[in-house]
Design a protein that fits this description.
It is a single chain. The chain is an alpha/beta fold. The chain contains 16 helices and 13 strands. The strands form three sheets. It has an eight-stranded parallel beta barrel with strand order 1-2-3-4-5-7-10-11, surrounded by four helices. It has a three-stranded mixed β-sheet with strand order 6-8-9, covered by helices on one side. Strand 10, helix 15 and strand 11 form a beta-alpha-beta unit. Helix 7 packs parallel to helix 9. The chain is globular. Bound molecules: beta-D-fucopyranose. Beta-D-fucopyranose binds next to loops.
Length: 472
């Protein structure tokens, strides 16, 4: 195995005692069984079945067939020795129409999963919304309308009532930036819309939905409640004033329109001066900011890579890359470093910088959990029946070291979840992008732990030994 030598752990940056390790997935990316046991369609079913929307026409119809193979996947988690597992509940599996009649078989599925996890000592973290909006709600306006936020709260209440006694940590939304802007402005994700105003309305309603769901989760008395954001470390392409201004616009859209209302009770002043849709849009109600800013127990952060932006006006902007909320920004890639198969540059120090910057800007920030970090690589099963993914090991080691550096600098990070447990349906990029610690053969659905899986297990064991936590 090409993992760092076992004696290499002594040199690995220390993380605090009690730091938690886990792996993450999302329902539509792994479950399959898209028409089984009463599940309703989601926007991702519609989108992936629309010709030309996903790489090679891939869909999540079968995915990893986790719906049927979850006992095997729970066993993989147990063997991995993780403290926790982050998965998402499929809203249309519980409520096929988004609202109204409940699907008991859907409820039972997550009951079994949660109980199986607990039986092997793996703490469940639930994401309520990882992008699979029930199609019936999209047909009535989707996130453009407030009724969807209200429906989300009712769904959150249902899940909390059923699973609240056993789930330690609850994430309302995963990456609302992507739901709003990649889904409703760029159109690269479901529902594939290219609208400016619609995306701003969606951003606001996602936050309102978060606030309403938090209220329901609190009322049900569940454990910890938070949200997961994909915050970006944004670099300017140059020190020209127009590029610095582009950086300001991108930072506002990617980060501050989420962090400011959640942690400072306001939309950023810059947003009001430029787009104004969030601060002053007709969809905004008087007490929305109070609702959105209700205290959280943690913030989930997903990180993969930094971005560099330039003003679109004086660079040849690729119209395909521009959001329909036209912020006059184009993305460049000046990083002279290795790139993953997603085309993403590997820049671990950007992770430390992002976490430290977040901490500086928001002194009142709740504890941070890294809810996703990982890499897609050109993994192959070799003749020995194994997957030697040395580059993934390097990526994870460097990014964990970057987290350790942020912790040493005073950022309160409590845990780190690898994206992902399994190779899976990587949204519009289909099945060619492999992010898993476990290789999945999509013809036979055979699971094969990669070298990185064994490496991660070694890391967790070494951490427990070093901090004198009992081995598992
Ligand atoms: C994140 C998503 C996750 C996965 C990774 C690679 O944006 O939350 O589902 O696709 O990217």
């Amino acid at each position: 195995m090409t993992t760092p030598a076992q004696d290499g752990w002594a040199a690995f940056p220390e993380l605090p005692a009690g730091f938690r390790f886990g792996a993450a997935t999302a329902a539509y990316q792994i479950e399959g069984a898209h028409q089984e046991d009463g599940r309703g369609p989601s926007v991702w079913d519609t989108f992936s079945h629309t010709p030309g929307r996903t790489h090679g026409g891939a869909t999540g119809d079968a995915a990893c067939d986790h719906y049927h193979r979850h006992p095997e996947d729970v066993a993989l988690l147990r063997e991995l020795g993780v403290d926790g597992y982050r998965f998402s509940i499929s809203w249309p599996r519980l409520l096929p129409e988004g609202t109204g009649p409940v699907n008991p078989k859907g409820l039972d599925f997550y009951d079994r999963l949660i109980d199986d996890l607990l039986a092997v000592g793996v703490a469940p973290t639930v994401t309520l919304y990882h992008w699979d909006l029930p199609q019936a709600l999209e047909d009535r306006g989707g996130w453009r309308v407030r009724a969807t936020a209200e429906a989300f709260a009712a769904y959150a209440a249902l899940a909390a009532e059923r699973y609240g006694d056993r789930v330690e940590r609850w994430i309302t939304l995963n990456e609302p930036y992507c739901s709003a802007f990649v889904g409703y402005a760029e159109g690269r994700h479901a529902p594939g819309a290219r609208e400016g105003r619609g995306a701003l309305a969606a951003a606001h309603h996602l936050l309102v939905g978060h606030g309403l769901a938090v209220r329901e989760l609190r009322a049900a008395g569940v454990g910890e409640v938070g949200i997961t954001l994909n915050l970006d470390r944004v670099h300017a392409a140059s020190t020209l004033p127009e590029d610095l201004a582009a950086k300001r616009r991108a930072t506002t859209l990617h980060n501050e329109i989420w962090t400011e209302p959640l942690f400072a009770g306001r939309y950023p002043a810059y947003e009001r001066q430029t787009w104004g849709g969030l601060a002053d849009g007709p969809w905004r109600r008087a007490d929305d900011l109070e609702l959105i800013g209700a205290p959280l127990d943690f913030l989930g952060v997903n990180f993969y890579r930094p971005i560099t932006v330039a003003a679109a006006a004086h660079r040849a902007a690729d119209p395909e890359q521009r959001t329909a909320v036209d912020i006059g920004v184009t993305e460049l890639d000046p990083y002279r470093t290795r790139h993953t198969t997603m085309g993403w540059p590997v820049v671990p120090k950007a992770f430390t910088e992002l976490l430290c910057e977040l901490h500086r800007r928001h002194p009142q920030l709740p504890p941070v959990w890294i809810t996703e970090n990982g890499t897609a690589e050109a993994d192959t099963l070799t003749a020995d029946g194994l997957v030697h993914d040395a580059q993934r090991i390097d990526y994870l080691a460097e990014h964990l070291a970057a987290v350790a550096e942020a912790v040493a600098a005073g950022v309160d990070v409590r845990g780190y979840y690898v994206w992902s447990l399994l190779d899976n349906f990587e949204w519009a990029r289909g099945y060619e992008q492999r992010f898993g610690l476990v290789h999945v053969d999509f013809d036979t659905l055979t699971r094969t732990p990669k070298d990185s899986y064994h490496w991660f297990r070694g890391l967790i064991t070494a951490h427990r030994a070093r901090t004198e936590e009992p081995a598992r």
